[in-house]
């Protein structure tokens, strides 16, 4: 299935959208439980290590426009009402641009709203664990630098299937969705739609056909036209959080001395991630 969402309709698609009644939200990773052992007389109780802590602090956003009394009186084309409606569009656009930054800046620790105890970017080749004695050589890497291609997608799938939990156990991954900018949309669509191998004369069946859903994320093009992502969609919806502390609200008033009509909008929101084990990010070099 291909999905090319409108510019301002991606937050609900990508995030677990929630309301908040606090100044900030705190998320805690959950440690894995070791294997069962043979019982010899009594139960053996396993140590479960805490996951990393994330604090997501909401920020305030506001905007306003002013319209003169004369403009209101002489309005012949409903321009005044149209300007007020544009304020709502501005609010939606602002939120969506921030939502996109979760992916656009997935390779950076310059977070917009969150403080992350691990201290690493969302996509990183050196993720860590609090569990004692666990090797992070394999299974703690969700960062690649290869350009989009059939071979790169397959390598990313294999890398994701090797993800490990905090205690080094393999976890069940279903990397079922590709997220690409407009510039990679055609290549990605051909990859998942062609019956034969892409760009070859061979008659081999295309391993990738129907294997992935496709999200064409247009706003990614504003940051980079080559970077792409592969995600486990179900896990993503459990790991990416968008908080609406104060939903968008609108107010208007008229200045007593100037008759200037003022329209204002306000909201508070934030976003962040609980854990990195849902995606592979390609920062193409």
Automatic annotation (TrEMBL):
Species, as recorded: viral metagenome
Supply the source organism's classification: unclassified sequences, metagenomes, organismal metagenomes
**UniProt name for this protein:** Putative capsid protein
């Amino acid at each position: 299935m291909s999905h090319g969402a409108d510019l301002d309709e991606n937050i609900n698609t990508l995030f677990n959208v929630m309301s908040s009644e606090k100044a900030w939200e705190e998320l805690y990773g959950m440690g894995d439980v070791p294997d069962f052992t043979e019982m010899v007389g009594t139960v053996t109780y396993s140590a479960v290590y805490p996951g990393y802590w994330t604090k997501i602090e909401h920020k305030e956003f506001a905007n306003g426009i002013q319209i003169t009394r004369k403009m209101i009186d002489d309005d012949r084309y409903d321009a005044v009402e149209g300007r007020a409606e544009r304020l709502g569009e501005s609010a939606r656009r602002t939120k969506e641009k921030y939502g996109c930054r979760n992916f656009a800046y997935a390779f950076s620790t310059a977070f917009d709203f969150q403080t992350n105890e691990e201290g690493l970017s969302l996509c990183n080749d050196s993720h860590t664990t609090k569990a004692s004695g666990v090797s992070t050589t394999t299974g703690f890497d969700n960062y690649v630098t290869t350009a989009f291609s059939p071979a790169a997608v397959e390598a990313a799938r294999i890398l994701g299937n090797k993800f490990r939990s905090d205690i080094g156990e393999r976890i069940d991954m279903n990397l079922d969705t590709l997220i690409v900018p407009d510039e990679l949309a055609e290549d990605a669509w051909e990859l998942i739609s062609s019956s034969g191998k892409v760009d070859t004369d061979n008659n081999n069946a295309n391993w990738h056909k129907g294997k992935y859903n496709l999200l064409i994320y247009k706003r990614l093009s504003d940051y980079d036209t080559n970077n792409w992502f592969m995600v486990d969609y179900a896990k993503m919806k459990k790991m990416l959080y968008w908080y609406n502390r104060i939903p968008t609200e609108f107010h208007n008033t008229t200045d007593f001395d100037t008759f200037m009509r003022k329209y204002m909008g306000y909201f508070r929101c934030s976003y962040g991630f609980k854990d990195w084990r849902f995606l592979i990010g390609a920062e193409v070099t």
